[in-house]
Amino acid sequence: MNIYKRWGFESTPFETMPLPPNEKGEKLLIGRSNYLKKIRSRLCSSSNIVTVEGQNGIGKTSLVNVAAYEIYKNFISTGEGPFMIPCDIAFQLSPEKDIEIFIDEVLFGIVQTLNRKGQEVKAKGSIPKGNDAVKNWLDVPPLDLKDMHNNKPKGMQEAELRVKILNWLQVIFPYGKGLGHINGVVCIVDNLELLQTSAIARKQIEQLRDTLFSYTGIRWVLCGSLGIVFGIASSPRLEGRLIDPIEVDGISPSEAGNILESRVLANAKYPNEVYLPLTRSEFIHLFGVLNNNIRNTLSYTNNYCLWIDDENLHPITNEEKATLYYKWMEIVSGKILDAIQTQLKRKAMSVFLTGVKVVGGAFSTEDFEEFGFANPGTMRSHINTLHKLGLVHASRDEGDKRRKNIQVTPKGWLVYYGLLLKKGISVASN
Are 252 and 393 a contacting pair, CB within 8 Å? Predict the structure, then answer.
């Protein structure tokens, strides 16, 4: 049985997927008002492509989803400002994916979003008087993607369906009328770092410049790890199309406890009758150990809860909860440290500790001087060792000096915690 249901929750409070573009997502986003303002401002002020950068798990997609939802909610309720609808799906490019297939995936996702959200708005039955844009959207018959062109060759079917979708979008979001150049469905291209290098990313994005990125009724946000958007923007073909990136940092440690409480409240069947084997203090501690990364903190909190259930434990008092949590942290970090310590030679260990303590867990081989190396090449073999051991994640380095393409992993942060424990150092935060 689901442990969280036994503990009084309707669903897990430690879900690691990006927050959805809806009311629940808005409630769960804590301590990010400044970034929300920046994203809303860029979406509402220009038709250029918005870009967001930050370490993995920092919350980039959640921020964009909630910002787009806030714009949408405001327009639906007041009729003021741009008319934007957040897409239900975040899209990902990959080096192997055919661009034409990607375009069709996006268009189909947009149709599904517009059809579903249209049904939601109609069900509420409250459209502000004079809100012609919403009325126009709801009056346009929904597209049925299953029942089209059944008697034509596949290539012709796809081409005609794409044209039909684009014409449909132009009716819903007419260009040149009011804020027509800004209105549209907000779509995210997520995890650009999966394209491995800025060169591959540039090539993929360039292929979309005159097609998907120019279609009426679609607004774009590109999300990726530190520096990759700047690598894309170096393309002359994309000059003037990308807004400079919003660089997203981690959530403030002072907000970590509020994140736990908001998730408990949002997922509890009866908020005063739920059980958790840890308190706000343990959650904040784990958040600090994992370098203020909320996704990793949620994931490891879930692991801890599963361990408590596996061991048939049921701590009640705050003291009991703290004791078991720190015992689990010692066990987890100790196991990882024991498994890799014989393989982690002195110089690789030095690189790892510098990456954690000096540069904060995100760096590139172009930072070689801070690590005591004469050039990037002499540093790479040690990075490869750390990567193979799972202590850092390293994507291909192509000489982009700004891109921080090496990041300490959750496993790496737990190894650092284990090392400090062995030295008898208390770890209240990172």
Answer: no
